[in-house]
């Protein structure tokens, strides 16, 4: 299956969704730069990290939203998509995630068919 890279737009064999191999390699190199910078400057904010590494703020925010990085203390950068509470990483706070899980659980149970082997089904029917 082919896909377009979300970064450069190039067509590539989609073994992993999102980025082509070249852009994925670039993203990993940028993540390593950010990680090394944060080891030496643990209290740096997004703007400081971007200035110190040359990695874009957009990419750093992506690392935060996907959980690859976490902010120390309360965040004025990331907020829950539903309630707006500050986050240290991700898109949804634990309380909203739990509420969504509880709301979806009954739907999942009602809509999920039972799985069984053909032989077991015959035994359950008494044949």
Strand order of the largest sheet: 1-2
* Average pLDDT number: 84
Give the low-confidence spans. none
Helix count equals 5
Q: Name the overall outline.
A: flat
Strand residues, percent? 5-15%
Secondary structure category: mainly alpha
Radius of gyration: 22 Å
What does this structure look like?
Helix 1 (about 20-40) crosses helix 2 (about 45-55). The chain has one domain. The longest helix has 20 residues, at about 20-40. It has about 130 residues and is mainly alpha-helical. The strands form two sheets. Strands 1-2 form a two-stranded antiparallel sheet. A two-stranded antiparallel ribbon has the order 3-4. About 50% of the residues lie in helices and about 10% in strands. The mean pLDDT is about 85.
List the topology elements.
Elements lengths: L1 E3 L6 E3 L7 H20 L5 H8 L3 H9 L12 E2 L6 E2 L6 H18 L6 H7 L3
Antiparallel strand pairs: 1-2, 3-4
Helix pairs in contact: 1-2
How would you briefly describe this protein structure?
With about 130 residues, this protein is mainly α. It has helices at about 20-40, 45-55, 55-65, 95-110, 120-125, and strands spanning about 1-5, 10-15, 80, 85.
